[in-house]
Write a structure and sequence with these properties.
The complex is a heterodimer. Chain A is an alpha+beta fold. Chain A has seven helices and eleven strands. By secondary structure, chain B is mainly α. Chain B contains twelve helices and one strand; from the N terminus they run αβααααααααααα. Classes of the chains: A alpha+beta, B mainly alpha.
Chain lengths: 211, 301
């Protein structure tokens, strides 16, 4: 079994329900995110559109975070999930430097690395990840990519899929339908500091407990 | 990227969470800088002691050399541990080692090196030079992976395109020989013969010159091969704090020492070598710091 995740960006409407559900389910502290939805505005008024892209851990088959972790705090589960053992993590931040997707953060409460685990605790009980359950338009599809009859496999077979930064050779197990460069490539859009929609947060001043 | 380069398709991030900022900061710079001195004095000192085996003034540096190495390796280890967000779990590296990680491999080898250095210091203290001499080659061999493992960590940092393994490996080696020779020039300024000073000066000058060439190669050609490298190098090309720090670092670490070494060797006068050495030691910190920080300024998602 190799669990994978697919987001149909044609369906996503940027409601951020998945973000909130993830935060609640995993008790993610303020200022930290396991999953987030990035908004990118494209074009010039009046010909503009807004794109929404949920971003989370890609659970790579060849995960750089797992490779660089000096104490195996980041490890593979049999179902392909890249899991993290926070009790073992020493907080070296090597995984943060290694992840090409910016999916790992330093938990300011535990001072250890943390990230999306595809809700491994729920999956082990036969439940879907909380973000999948919360999505009102079923844009999130989760399942076994080795089972050709699974919903995710059927979806992959009938749509054009993309992954983020395939050139890194990490073989992500997180797929996107309807994604373009703007959605998936951070260099394809400009970040103007202080010009966000609902806030003016730009950079975190401190990372974890190093105050 | 065409998506943000022309008005018709300009793409602007209008909502995202706060970016994490700098994860590895000056503490890691201290780590790399101190490690370069700690291993560099072993490389250059080994050469010096072998070549001038009958020169008493050179042989007198045996104890200072090993003590400098011990002190700077411990500064390096101290800052390594200080940077951990869970520093009291450092022992996990020894009880739950993950051998694909350059961090683990480096931690184990540097631990063995520290043991060897203490044996050498003890041997010298009790005037057992034969033991000192027999352990020195082992210390040099162990110092090689200790010097290079940080390059391994940078190579395993898949997200940071700027840090490429062959280049970083050479840069780490050159850093060690640069500050190793600089440190020995400082401690031997009043006692070493002109011939020994000339040898050390040439090591320092060549290390500085080649390291400068490598950085300039990356600065000029890096963006022609990789978009991410180009985006990262904008941080030093557009002006601002990191641009100033980069050029001040290059000047102090490489240009000043290389120029002073050239003048000294051609004039056979080594009076400016302490200045060149201090310049190299100070400049290397800046160079390492800029190269560590700038890839972290790039958003990953």
């Amino acid at each position: 079994m190799k669990l994978g995740f697919l987001v149909d960006l044609n369906l996503c409407m940027g409601c951020k329900g998945c973000e909130v559900a993830c935060k609640v389910e995993n008790e993610v502290p303020i200022s930290s995110w396991r999953l987030r939805v990035k908004y990118v505005d494209v074009g010039v008024f009046p010909d503009t559109k807004r794109t929404f892209t949920p971003l989370r851990c890609n659970h790579c088959e060849d995960a750089p975070c797992e490779r660089i972790c000096p104490v195996s705090a980041l490890h593979y589960l049999d179902n392909g999930i890249v899991n993290i053992d926070k009790d073992r993590c020493i907080g070296c931040a090597g995984c943060i430097m290694a992840c090409p997707y910016g999916a790992i953060y330093m938990d300011p409460e535990t001072n250890t690395a943390d990230k999306c685990t595809y809700c491994a605790h729920r999956v082990s009980s036969g439940l879907m990840p909380s973000c999948v359950v919360a999505c009102p338009v079923e844009a999130n599809i989760f399942g076994d990519t080795e089972d050709v009859t699974s919903g995710i496999s059927q979806y992959i077979m009938s749509h054009n899929i993309k992954v983020r930064k395939p050139e890194k050779g990490t073989f992500p197990k997180h797929y996107y339908v309807g994604g373009g460069e703007i959605n998936l490539n951070p260099l394809a859009s400009v970040r103007k500091e202080g010009h966000q929609l609902f806030n003016n947060i730009t950079h975190l001043k401190f990372i974890g407990g190093h105050h | 990227m065409i998506e943000h380069s022309i008005p018709a398709t300009q793409a602007v991030v209008t909502l995202d969470v706060a970016l994490p900022g700098i994860v590895w900061g000056w503490i890691i710079t201290m780590n790399m800088w101190a490690k370069s001195i700690g291993t560099g004095v072993l490389f250059v000192g080994f050469y010096l002691l072998k070549k001038y085996h009958s020169d008493e003034k050179i042989q007198a540096i045996k104890m200072p050399l090993v003590m400098i190495s011990i002190i700077f390796i411990h500064i390096f280890l101290l800052f390594t541990v200080l940077d951990l967000h869970q520093m009291f779990r450092f022992w996990h590296i020894f009880f739950y080692p993950h051998w694909t990680s350059a961090i683990t491999v480096g931690a184990w080898i540097v631990t063995i090196l520290v043991g060897v250095l203490f044996i050498m210091a003890g041997a010298k203290y009790f005037n057992r030079d034969s033991i000192y001499d027999s352990f020195f080659p082992l210390a040099v061999i162990l110092a090689i992976p200790v010097t290079l493992y940080t390059a391994g960590i940078m190579a395993e940092s898949t997200a940071r395109e700027l840090w490429q393994m062959p280049t970083e490996m050479v840069q780490m080696t050159l850093s060690a020989t640069l500050v190793g020779s600089a440190t020995l020039l400082l401690i031997g300024n009043n006692s070493f013969s002109d011939e020994a000073k000339r040898d050390l000066a040439i090591v320092m000058g060549l290390s500085a010159f080649v390291a400068f060439l490598l950085y300039m190669g990356e600065y000029i050609f890096g963006s022609m091969k990789a978009e991410e490298v180009g985006a990262v190098l904008q941080a030093v090309k557009e002006g601002g704090a990191y641009s100033s720090m980069f050029w001040v670092g290059q000047t102090l670490a490489y240009l000043v020492p290389a120029f002073l070494v050239f003048l000294s060797v051609t004039n056979k006068s080594y009076g400016t070598m302490p200045l060149a050495s201090v310049s190299a030691l100070a400049g290397l910190w800046l160079v390492k710091h800029v190269w560590l920080i700038i890839p972290q300024l790039l958003p990953m998602s």
